[in-house]
Amino acid sequence: MFKTIKNIWHIEDLRKRIGFTLFVLFIYRIGSFVPVPGVDKSVLANTNNAGADLFGLLNTFSGGALMQFSIFALGITPYITASIIVQLLSMDVIPKLSEWAKQGEHGKKKSAQLTRYGTIVLGIIQAFAMSIGFNRMYGTVMIPNATFAKYVLIAIVLTAGTAFLMWLGEQITERGIGNGISMLIFAGIVANIPTYIRTTSQSSFIQDNQIFMNSLKTILLVLVIVLIVVGVIYVQQAIRKIPVQYAKRVVGNKMYGGQNTHIPLKINAAGVIPVIFAISLLQFPVIIASFWTPNAWAEWVKINLSHDQPLGMVLYVIMIIGFTFFYTFVQMNPQQMAENMKKNGGYIPGIRPGKATEKYMTRVMSRLTMSGAIFLAVISLTPIFLGSLAGLPKSVQIGGTALLIVIGVALDTMKQIEGQLIKRHYKGFINK
């Protein structure tokens, strides 16, 4: 492993990419502490603890910028929402978007541009609602002498912060290492780890003057974290190989094809994207409702749709499973895979090319995806159950979801680095 890390710095291109990524993440962390103009910082300081529990993972996504109401308070949530909307509309809802989805790289660029425009529109709406909501949420005046012009100014600043983060994420994807948006979420979660540790040590989970019990609880907590890490790595790396044979073809005086290969299907091909989508959508109505309390409907939404309540858990699991299937079949279309195999003279042994191959691939992918979706749901809910039993704060109970995202992004980034090393004849992290 140490030799692999040493090899990374021997490759100039890889060294520049890693350095660029770290530089962008450094800018992101600095911006998380730059306050929005016209906000009373003392009010924010007094309301941070209550808000951190309420906003949960959304505050974690932004690296704590949401509760500090910095220029990056919106984070990349509008971008995630816009991506969901564009991808849903591409599923034969709007013919033009469906056509773009079939145009390859050119179509992806058009969809990405539409996602950017959607991010700005959603950002303005969410920023305006957030500026009004934060000002009235705790019964205090966070924005002194608030006027419509002040709300508009704050909304513009917050939207500009989101647009800048979106641009930073694209720069990481193009010139750095890993998926840019995922790396920003990764950085925000890692930055909050010290806060998790401090909150846990100050909660009722750790009791004064009970050294033995405190040590036992700490060991159990660490053990649960290790089991989650091992489980996530095991499932994220697990694949099923579908054997494929290619018929021999004679072109002129040469013979082509005839080789045996396989299609690697991952148990969790969607990664952590379904969890990010699900928690973003689930907490959106909760945040909106919190701005309108003490209305009866707002209180009901805030209480019942919370991630630690029965209804909220059910919706959370349903959305995780739904988004896992949606994202997997968008990324890996069985019909397109079957057509490509048939065009290239490939077939799965014992399965007829064409429609039969498509049905077989759909059946196999459905079973694998269901296993992966259930795993994601279990990993996301386990810390919530254990946290409720142990009396941990809500901000710590979502640690399993955060850990799932961190491990998924780390594995994906590691694979990209390994690909760069193998391409240049270096051994990677996994290769012996």
TrEMBL record:
Keywords: Cell membrane, Membrane, Protein transport, Translocation, Transmembrane, Transmembrane helix, Transport. InterPro entries: SecY, SecY/SEC61-alpha, SecY_CS, SecY_dom_sf. It is found in: Cell membrane; Membrane. SUPFAM superfamilies: Preprotein translocase SecY subunit. Signal peptide: none annotated. Gene3D superfamilies: SecY subunit domain. It is a multi-pass membrane protein. Its main location: membrane. GO terms for cellular component: plasma membrane. One of its GO terms (biological process) is protein targeting. The keyword Chaperone does not apply. The keyword ATP-binding does not apply. The chain crosses the membrane at residues 20-39, 69-94, 114-136, 148-168, 180-199, 219-239, 269-293, 313-330, 368-390, 396-414. NCBIfam families: 3a0501s007. Belongs to the SecY/SEC61-alpha family. The central subunit of the protein translocation channel SecYEG. Consists of two halves formed by TMs 1-5 and 6-10. These two domains form a lateral gate at the front which open onto the bilayer between TMs 2 and 7, and are clamped together by SecE at the back. The channel is closed by both a pore ring composed of hydrophobic SecY resides and a short helix (helix 2A) on the extracellular side of the membrane which forms a plug. The plug probably moves laterally to allow the channel to open. The ring and the pore may move independently. Component of the Sec protein translocase complex. Heterotrimer consisting of SecY, SecE and SecG subunits. The heterotrimers can form oligomers, although 1 heterotrimer is thought to be able to translocate proteins. Interacts with the ribosome. Interacts with SecDF, and other proteins may be involved. Interacts with SecA. This is Protein translocase subunit SecY.
